[in-house]
Design goal:
single chain; alpha/beta; Nucleotidyltransferase, domain 5; 2 domains; seven-stranded mixed β-sheet; five-stranded mixed β-sheet
């Protein structure tokens, strides 16, 4: 196939900023050339958090759609400048946008990602593929997780079974059987990753810090067994896949519930227990719902992969059943994986290839995802 360059843009439920990946597609496969993170200004982060909450105003969401679209476009231009690649050489941009709502169940299942693609196209002059989730929902799926198709492309192995674990605001896992094909790929959302930790840190530091860098605050504490048991009893964990979730379930409301019940704990103990919740819920569900025969290579990516308390928790939960390794050790920067996914999905869309895996999302069939914007 002819070599081409694409850009993937991703802003997750952590609401902290935009990850951009410059990707080369060729006969040799998918290659990450550069990664760039553009943090949201503090005010913009606060606005996104407000818009994502139960009282999000339509006027604010409308304005944010344009603001974030412009920032996405600027980030795409900047990553090209960083790599000294002319934006005119970019074949396409894949943009996830910023999730504001995700309601994957019920009569009127729905999802909303903002970050106006027309603004991205206007700033870059590139074809933009965006809004990947609704097509899957329209054919009976949950619109998430979409990462497994990229995880298969990037990390499948003929020599070992692998779990790819994305630790964004929400945690999701993909199971890649040893020597498996795309049709064998399974995966699902497991619950919170950074979402509860970030909310807790903002509260405990009065907004001075937005996240627990390196897990340093969490590592000062100990896991509280009573709180961990309570967290692991959450009904979402008992639901069989396919399943997906978001801040509607594991956001501010759930944090308030936990804090009201366990505010007697020291702040470090509270944080360490939330980190353990992410770890033990993910590993527990993997071995409960997936046909895994140990040992398994457990590949971590996303912002939570930088949190030592979470990573240690995952290894402790795994025990002798597997070993943890960063995706960076396998050639894809652990902060860039989801941005690379957006480029992969956009490439599939423009080739007319499906981007969802029905076994993962619950869709009735595989469909081409996304909407194409050209100016």
């Amino acid at each position: 196939m002819a070599e081409k360059l694409g850009i993937g843009l991703m802003s997750g439920t952590s609401c902290d900023g935009i990850d951009a990946a410059l990707v080369r597609f060729s006969k040799n496969g998918t290659e990450l050339l550069a990664h760039r993170f553009t943090p949201f200004p503090k005010k913009l982060m606060e606005e996104v958090v407000s818009a994502s909450g139960p009282d999000g105003r339509s006027e604010l969401i409308c304005e944010l759609n344009v603001k974030i679209g412009k920032l996405f476009g600027k980030t795409a231009v900047e990553i090209c400048s960083k790599r000294r690649v002319s934006i005119s050489k970019i074949s396409f941009i894949g943009s996830h946008g910023q999730t504001i709502r995700h309601h994957p169940t019920g009569k009127n299942r729905s999802t909303l990602q903002i970050g106006e693609p027309a603004e991205i196209a206007a700033l870059t002059g590139c074809t933009v593929v965006s809004d990947f989730r609704p097509a899957d929902i329209a054919v009976g799926g949950q619109g998430a997780p979409l990462a497994p198709i990229a995880h298969y492309d990037l990390f499948s192995s003929g020599s070992e079974a692998r779990i790819v674990h994305n630790l964004g605001g929400i945690s999701n896992i993909t199971f890649l059987k040893k020597g498996g094909k795309l049709k064998d790929v399974t995966g699902f959302d497991t619950g919170p990753a950074n979402s509860l930790l970030d909310i807790a840190v903002r509260k405990f530091t009065d907004g001075v810090k937005s996240y627990d860098k390196g897990g340093k605050l969490s590592l000062k504490g100990e896991v509280n067994k009573s709180m961990l048991t309570y967290c692991l009893s959450h009904p979402f964990l008992n639901k069989k896949p396919p399943k997906s979730t978001g801040l509607e379930v594991f956001g501010v409301d759930y944090f308030d519930e936990l804090y009201a019940k366990f505010k007697r704990l020291s702040e470090p103990d509270f944080l360490r227990t939330v980190a353990a919740f992410t770890a033990f819920s993910s590993v527990g569900q993997a071995f409960r719902f997936l046909d895994i025969v140990p040992p398994v290579r457990w590949i971590i990516s996303g912002g939570g992969a930088y949190n030592t308390a979470v990573v240690l928790g995952i290894q402790n939960a795994l025990g002798e059943r597997g070993s943890v390794v960063s995706s960076s050790k396998l050639g894809i920067d652990k902060k860039a994986v989801e941005a690379v996914l957006m480029a992969i999905l956009a490439n599939r869309t423009l080739k007319g290839e499906p981007g969802n895996i029905p076994l993962v999302t619950g869709a009735k069939r595989a469909v081409v995802l996304g909407k194409i914007t050209r100016l």
